[in-house]
Amino acid sequence: MVGRTRERLILMVAMSFVLAPMSFLPICSAQSTQLHDMSLQRWGKLREVERHQMQVAEKYFRDRNWTVAADEYDKYLTLYEASDAASHALLKWSICQVELRRQNTAINDGFRSVVDYWPDSDDAIAASYYVGKTLKDIGQTKKAKTALTDVAEEHPKHLAGVLAMVSLAEIATVEKDDKLKEEILRKLTFDAIRDKRTRRQCENASVQLATILFSKPSVEDAIKSLATTYSNEQLASEVVSKARSPLRNLISDKDSASKAETLANALLGFLRESAPDNTDSDETKAYAKQLAFLSIDVLQTANRTAEVENEFSLITKRFGTDDELLNRIADWHKQNGQYAKARQAYGRFEDKVAGLQMIATSYREEKDLPQAIQTYNKLIASDAENQVKWKSESAGTYREFKKHADAIALYQQLIQEDPDDGDRWLWETAMTHKEAGNWKDAIGFFRQSERFPESYWEMASCHRQLKQYNEAITLYNQIAGGDKSRAPAAMLQIGYTEEDAKRSDKAIAAFKKVCRLFPKDQHASRAHAHLQNKYKLTVTLGGAKQD
Amino acid sequence: MSAISPQLRSSPAVKWTVGYLIVWTILLFEIRTLQMLPNWGHIVWGSLSVALVWYWWKATSENHQYARLERYLIATVAFILWWQLTLVVLDTLIMDSARANVARWGTASLFMIGLLWMVWGVERASVHYQKIKQNYEWLRDTSNEKSANTKLARLVWNPLNLDAHYYAVQWWPPRPVSLLRSISNRQAATALPRAQRSPKLDQSLLALISYTLLFLLVALLFSQIGGCREIYEMPAGGGEQQQLAQVVKIKKVIRKKYIINPLSSIIFAVPPIDDVQLELTEITKHAYQIGQGEGKGAGFSGGTYRGKVRFIRLEYSGGDWDQDYGVGGDLNMLLEYGIRTQHKVAERTESRTIGQLANFPLGKSPPLVYMTGQKNISLSNSEVKTLREYLTDKHGMLFGDNGGSRHFHNQFLSMMNRVLPNVKPVPIPLDDVIHRIPYQIPYLPYVAPHGGKEALGWYKDGRWLAYYHPGDIGDAWSDGHAGVSADIWESCYRIGTNVTFYAHSEYSKWLDAQEKD
Questions:
Q1: pLDDT tens-digit series, residues B96-145
Q2: Does residue A55 form part of some domain?
Q3: What letter does residue B300 receive in the DSSP assignment?
Q4: How many domains in chain A?
């Protein structure tokens, strides 16, 4: 018995040793990619009291309570100046100052002090970067460039160095310094070490670089750039996807038409080279087909319409017809305004339901109501499992064509047939009545709906149409009382409703109330402007200070 | 006019009137350009027109055929004289809003009066030419004179003549051959194909269009005269760029002590015996001179002794640059700035168009201009260029204030993107010099958050080129302070003071640096 107890005790002690560092593990792991995070080893070196104080500060930091967090870090620095994490506390204190919009204080009293007092620490590198970044954020680009260049050159393999390069690229974008931007993006793409913390920045840089290179067009380099980020399987689709916008821009400008031609040809050449020689297996066949579709994308973007049709017939010969290919062909016909041809393609779908759905959509696009409804009726008959969906689509089509009575009849059926989703159909019925201008009926259905405060909002709007202003105001008051986030908007609407009712005094009072009660809200801005413009009142109450 | 008797024409009254009008015209140019003469001088001279108009009114009372016409002419001249006089009076009384309205309605009235005169003139001229035509026709009928026929066959180009060959012509669809033939052979009788339109209608339309264009051109020229050359001078002096010192006096108030009998049967809450209520009185006093440089008295080393800090609002097209103009906001801010900094300030506020900023020479241009509104901002390319030159080359600064909409926020940002394409707006730190000196601004105050809650700035070459306040700071400066609490409008005045001081001290530093170079 005693032995078992001892074993338990030993186990508990061992567990406590294992679990103790894990008590703060989530904090570290959650933000492990951040530059200002402290490593687990450093946490381990702290004394219990230091760790406690640091955790208190970190908690407020995570809660974005910057004032309190800054005070807590300050307290840490006062109490444990010689601690291993003092530089970290000062770094975090500086970040709090940045968040409190005291960037100059952060730079002069925070980041620079970290660099001066703990020059060999990891925090000093981060602080050097933050100096540059903060200078950039307050518009002092010249100083920022110097600071960031230093960090990028001295610590090219550190996360701070990578982030510094990203910031430098942003400055180059604002200053329209294309040469510098390309140079930095090349470094980030090809030279920077990609690890867990820097991967995202480097990948973004490679995509940006590829876009620039496609515009030149320097296709080979652009593909190399993307190849650093995407695997062979993804590369072709990403190349086409990233080249689409530059190709479109080059085509839109007459002067760059030859460049567009070069880019399109290079892309087609790359896709042809990427095609597998042997298409025996399903995988290689699918890949070859994907490449063929990508070629069509390029041709479509380059406005080479004649070649698109050839390409489609080649694909049909090589891979046979399937729904995917038919869909692409139909899309192509629709782009050219040939809806009948598109529908022929949809009609050949193996998945008849999907084909009919696409046909119905194409009729809707062509504004052919009877045919669209007829197609939906076919769907209702042939796809019994999804009758609700197709009836809803039918009703939507009627609404699109302002046939409100037909739409309402269908929604009424749906209320009966699909009671589980009854509230949705009630809402749709109410909205259709509102669209038809049947305000009273709409109010009746909105009242049955459970969507608060949207239903009240809509009811108030209908009452205003019926000139029942007092009812509308009552509803707006109920919204203001029941939903704090909607209160400013509701009270503003009370003002407008009073105005509709020709009760100017009450309207003015309502607008002033919005300004006074919610001075920081956008609706206060509207109320203030309305009081000035409509009533020529400069005294609107309100007024506040930045948070 | 022709009815004025020869005696009257050579009379001293005419000479006096002509002399008066010449001096009046010179004074009009003076007030639009140099502004050296005080306003009362203009008012006195303008007031003399009352007697003059009265005299001429009486002089034309004779019952002759042109009496009515003469009176119309006198009324027209009187309108122009008195309109300008009213503007000067309102300017002197600093009734900016009324002045702007009178200027606007006066221009419209002048247009209408001119239009009536134009209609009268065209009508008389066409009657005159019709009479001439009738004479030629009579000649032709009576003597078959060849020359008369030739004259009638000629193409008429005079637009005052209703027989001008381009009236009542079928312009659409265009017939280039006929048009070219008619232009190349000015004497040819072959005219353009005729349309079913009255020549009178064409003449009226042409007259209206020509008059409108001419009026616009003259108005444009006249508005540009206003700034042939203008100078802005800061008040001379010196001082430090430091925060205003706040002295706190603590007054101890000893509250009455209660003597309590512990044996008393009455129980009540015993107040703390040594409770001391502190009454704090904050006194802000100038512990030093606010300014820049080493001059004597509060001011700027780059200033002059006749210089003053002025508040200039920027006029722009497309929107409402004059929002709440003249309700006291601008003037209140200017006066507050004067009181708080002890700098000399102008007696009244002003407004200038963006084009007029080009009239200020390098080193004598306004360090700060204010811009507000809530609608569109529509600037031409030349205005964008002028504004860019003002901000960068002339070391100026723009104080933007969102007067009431998110739309204005977007408009202002897009305008600045055109003016300074290589500078990105950034939120201005609360511990920046502009938010610290002379007043510490711990939080940005606003009347309503039209464009967010952060002040934005455009920073280039070591200074802020533009400061944008998102929340109608101008309303807090105005009379009544938009009903906001005292600490908000006080903060708004402090921001206004800081921005004005910042712009002037940066300008002064720049002037000092240029002098050293």
A1: 667 778 888 999 999 999 999 999 999 999 899 888 888 877 777 776 55
A2: yes
A3: B
A4: 2
Angle of the A369-382 helix axis to the A352-365 helix axis, nearest 10:
160
Contact A191, A207 (CB under 8 A): no
Picking from B146, B324, B513, the residue whose alpha carbon sits closest to that of residue A528 is B324
The dihedrals phi and psi of A292, each to the nearest 5 degrees, come to -65, -40
Q: Pull the structure tokens for residue B311.
A: 């508040």
**From CA B433, how far away is CA B440, in angstroms rounded?**
9
User: What does the domain layout of chain B look like in residue ranges?
Assistant: 6-94, 139-221, 309-516
Which of A143, A158, A175 is the endpoint of a domain? Answer: A175
- Give contacts of B481 with chain A, Cβ < 8 Å: 539
Q: Which residues contact residue A273 at a Cβ distance below 8 angstroms, ignoring those fewer than 6 apart?
A: none
Residue A65 domain-assigned (yes or no): yes
Apex B63 CA angle, B58 and B67, nearest 5: 65
Apex CA B234: angle with CA B415 and CA B228, to 5°?
A: 60
For residues B512 and A451, give the distance between their C-alpha atoms in angstroms, rounded to a whole number. Answer: 68
User: Smallest Cα–Cα separation from A379: which of A359, A396, A406?
Assistant: A359
Measured at the alpha carbon of residue A503, what is the angle toward residues A501 and A504, in degrees to the nearest 5? Answer: 125
Q: How far apart are CA B433 and CA B278, in angstroms?
A: 33
* CA B93 to chain CA centroid, nearest Å: 17
Average pLDDT of every residue of chain B: 83
**Contact between chains at A538 and B482 (C-beta distance less than 8 A):** yes
Quote the CA–CA distance of B139 and B143 in Å, as a whole number: 6
Place of tokens 């709007």: A461
- The CATH number corresponding to B309-516 among 3.40.50.12140, 3.40.190.170, 3.30.70.100, 3.40.50.620 equals 3.40.50.12140
Whole-number average pLDDT of chain A? 89
Residue A225 CA to residue A218 CA, distance in Å, equals 11
Minimum Cα–Cα distance from B458: chain A residue: A139
Contacts of B114 (CB under 8 A, 6+ apart): B211, B215
Q: Are strands B293-294 and B238-239 parallel, antiparallel or unpaired?
A: antiparallel
In angstroms, the CA B459 to CA B422 distance is 10
Tens digits of residue pLDDT in A131-181? 999 999 999 999 999 999 999 999 988 899 999 999 999 999 999 999 999
Question: Does the residue A82 lie in any domain?
Answer: yes
- Note whether residue A207 is domain-resident: no
Q: What is the mean pLDDT of residues B79-100?
A: 83
Burial class (CB in 10 A: 0-12, 13-18, 19+), B212: middle
B175 CB neighbour count, 10 Å cutoff: 15
* Residue B244 DSSP label: P
**Which conformational region is residue A467 in: left (phi greater than 0), alpha (psi within -120 to 50 degrees), or beta?**
left
CA distance B337 to A31: 49
Q: How many CA atoms lie within 13 A of B22 on its CB side?
A: 6
CB–CB contact B446 A138 (8 Å): no
Tell me the sheet residues that pair with B457.
B426, B467
Q: Which residues of A touch B (CB under 8 A)?
A: 100-105, 137-141, 174-176, 512, 515, 519-522, 524-525, 527-529, 532-533, 538-547
Encoded tokens for A414: 């749906």
Question: Please, which residues have CB within 8 angstroms of residue A134's CB and are 6 or more apart in sequence?
Answer: A98, A103, A106, A107, A111
Interface test with A, best of B440, B447, B494 (most A CBs within 10 A): B447
Identity at A411, one-letter amino acid code: Y
